[in-house]
Amino acid sequence: MTYRLVVNGEPAEVGVPGMRRLLDVLREDLGLTGTKEGCGEGECGACTVLVDGEVVVSCLVPVCQVDGSVVRTVEGLAVAGGSALAPLQAAFLEAGGAQCGICTPGMLMAADAFLAAGAEPTDDAIRGAIAGNLCRCTGYTKIVDAIRLAAERRQAGAGAA
Length: 161
Hints:
Helix content is 36%, strand content 14%.
């Protein structure tokens, strides 16, 4: 069967079995390898993407459930045609929020959804937003710092407008 999606702003059409995991469609059929597979059981959050603006673990979602949806992956964060880092990505780089890189795409997507929601960027709120994403390298402090930095910059930019 053919499924139609909008992925990172571009229309995509895939002819795959309906129960094929969204993770596999993204990585293997569409060549978007930024989304990582960690556990394959929905526990680690490495495969987190946004579907219609909602955080989902793509290893648990069959493509038939997202037919007609808008999907955003970590590749969709980059600005200027992929040549520049998004402010959130720059904050992760500056704060040292990324180490081995396995959890980073999922963390970025969960953080992007949090920032888009406009919630108050307290440490507790940030930790709650990324609670479904496991990191075995950083101890989360630098990740929280990076998200807070991105939130502060976003607020400062909004105040200047």
